[in-house]
Amino acid sequence: MLATASTTYAGAKVAAKTTTVTKRANVITRAGQYDDELLQTAQNMTKPGKGILAMDESNATCGSRLEGVGVENTEENRRRYRELLITTPNLGEYIGGAILFEETLYQSCADGTSFVDALKKQGVYPGIKVDKGLRPLANSNGESWCQGLDGLAERAAEYYKQGARFCKWRSVVSIPAGPSKIAVTDCAYGLARYAAICQNAGLVPIVEPEILLDGDHDIDRNFEVASMVWAETFKYLADNNVKFDRMLLKPSMVAPGADCTKKSNAKEVAEYTLKMLNSRVPPETAGIMFLSGGLSELDSTMYLNAMNQSPNPWHVSFSYARALQNSVIKEWSGSDERIASAQAILKRRTVENGQAQLGKFDVTKSQTDGASVYEKGYVY
C-alpha cells in the first residue's frame, strides 16, 4: 500500500513516497479441547502387545453369524453374545479397545452393569462405529462410497457422553471394479473429514481404507492400488489438519486377491506390507491396527508376527473381528453352558495376537484353525 507524505528540508517542501507494508496474519493452529485426552487414549491403546477387538458388526451381519450357529437373530441374543465377549476374564491383557455397534454401546450385562463400565473395568477403551454403511457409487463399475458425515459431529458428541473414546469409519476400494479415481478420492476425503470431526469431539479416529480381497489380482497389483489409496488418504488427512499422533490406521495387509492362483506366504506379505507402510505412513501415526479382511485366523496371526520381527516406527498390531471371533461363536452356539469354553478360545486368540504384536508368536504351539473366513462381497 503506497502513501504520499510531505517532508520539509531547509524550508523547502518536498513530496516523498513512503511504503506501508500490510503483513499477512500468521495461521495459528489452536490446541483442541480434547488434545491431551486424545493423546493419552491413543498411547494407552498402543502399549506393547495391545490390539483391538472389533465387535461392531451391524445387526444384520451379527444376526447372520448367529443364525449360522443356530441362534435366532434377536436383540437379546446379540446382547448375550457380546456380553460373552466383553466379560472374558483378563480380556484387557492384550486388548486395548473394543469397537462397538451403536446398539451395543447402550446395552448392559445381565447383572445391570453397562457394557461401557464392563469394558472400563477390564482396562479396555470402548469405541464406536460411526459410519452409516456403503452405498453404490453413481456412474461407476459397481464401486461404493461410504455415507455418514451428515450429523456426525452431533452423534460423536453423544457417543462421547455415553463413554466412547475412539471410533471407526470403514470405506472400501475394489480392485476388480476399478478402482476409479473418483472412488479412491471419495474414500480418502470421507475418511479425512470423519477423522477431523471426531478428533474435535474427543474421539480417537480409526481410519480404515480397506482394499477388498475380492478378485484374482496378484500381490503386486494390490501393492500398486494400496500405494495410490494410502497416498490419497494421508494427503487429505493432512489437508484437514488431522493429528496423526492422535489417530490409528486400520489398513488391509498387502496380499493377493482371494481368487489368485499364486498365493503368498507370511514373509512375502510382511515384506510388501512394510514396504508400503514405510513409503506412505508418517512415523508419528500412533498405531497401525490391521484388519483381517477374511484371512484365516491362523494366517492373520502369522502375517502380523512376521511384520514384527524387526523394529517399526509405529505400533503394528491388530483390529480383528472374524479372526478373533470365528471359533468363539461356533463354540458358544447360544449355550450358556459353553460360555466359559468360548471365552477360553477368545482369550487364547487375544494372547496369540498379542504375542504376534511383540513378534513372539510360535505357530508350533498354536491350536488355532487355519481355515479361511473369507466371504466374497462381505458387508459389515
Characterization of this structure:
The protein is an alpha/beta fold. Helix content is 40%, strand content 17%. Strands 3-4-5-8-9-10-11-12 form an eight-stranded parallel barrel, surrounded by six helices. A two-stranded antiparallel ribbon has the order 1-2. A two-stranded antiparallel sheet has the order 6-7. The termini are far apart.
Would you summarize the structure shown here?
This protein has 380 residues and is an alpha/beta fold.
Architecture blueprint of SSEs:
Layout lengths: L1 E8 L2 E8 L15 H11 L5 E5 L3 H10 L6 H12 L8 E6 L1 H4 L9 H7 L3 E5 L4 E3 L7 E3 L5 H11 L3 E8 L7 H19 L4 E8 L7 H21 L8 E2 L16 H15 L6 E4 L6 H11 L7 E6 L1 H11 L6 H19 L23
Parallel strand pairs: 3-4, 3-12, 4-5, 5-8, 8-9, 9-10, 10-11, 11-12
Antiparallel strand pairs: 1-2, 6-7
Helix pairs in contact: 7-8, 8-9, 9-10, 10-11, 10-12, 11-12
Poorly predicted regions? 1-22, 371-375
Strand order in the sheet with the most strands:
3-4-5-8-9-10-11-12
Residue share in β-strands: 15-25%
The computed structural class is: alpha/beta
Major sheet description: 8 strands, parallel, barrel
How far the N terminus sits from the C terminus, by CA atoms, comes to 59 Å
The number of helical segments is 12
Residue share in helices?
Answer: 25-40%
Compute the average pLDDT. 91
How many individual β-strands? 12
